[in-house]
């Protein structure tokens, strides 16, 4: 499958994710910690949004709320997808299962038959360029290959057997490439863009890396330091190969991120 990586797709009108006045506080009394406060954010179906911020600003907490792993203290979280899925820094694969069986796992838990789920798992492994590797166990794969398997598994959870592909999948990614070396990270970023365009999955991607955010996202959302709130958003240029525009955006976003960090330190 060949996918054009030079053109970013227009955002759709349908809303996949909406947060309105969302706050999250952990604990009570003097020891309470407010991680998020007054978050207003919408993500369109099929959109790729990067949430950027310094460490401890509540980025992972935001993903947990979207995944339904935690509930907001205030405000409302609406997720249109019935199948949100998570991808973490670590591949978190089942070591006793092959790559194919790892990808099949969410389909098995969803009650799909063996033949259908195996066919879908093989399709997704092919999509992440792991054809013929389905019989390998995680310890037989490199770190980058394990993350590819993890991506295929997350897509299986988000898109099911693919019958509704591009209409309801939501992929939540918590710095999935942070633990990889620079070359592998660069390759997988390109692969993620290719897979996103091939599947139409909605992606909310958390990172603290401005370069990564500018390269990947259609829209970059900057959170303030704790308590996290949206301080600014940027829409990326339609031409993904406009190096000058990307450089200007990188500098602008970096400057605002430094302001956020400096104001917090002060």
From TrEMBL:
Signal peptide: none annotated. Pfam families: ABC_tran. PANTHER family: ALIPHATIC SULFONATES IMPORT ATP-BINDING PROTEIN SSUB (PTHR42788:SF13), TAURINE IMPORT ATP-BINDING PROTEIN-RELATED (PTHR42788). Coiled coil: none annotated. Keywords: ATP-binding, Nucleotide-binding, Transport. Residues 17-250 form the ABC transporter domain. This is ABC transporter ATP-binding protein. InterPro entries: AAA+_ATPase (IPR003593), ABC_transporter-like_ATP-bd (IPR003439), ABC_transporter-like_CS (IPR017871), ABC_transporter_ATP-bind (IPR050166), P-loop_NTPase (IPR027417). PROSITE patterns: ABC_TRANSPORTER_1, ABC_TRANSPORTER_2.
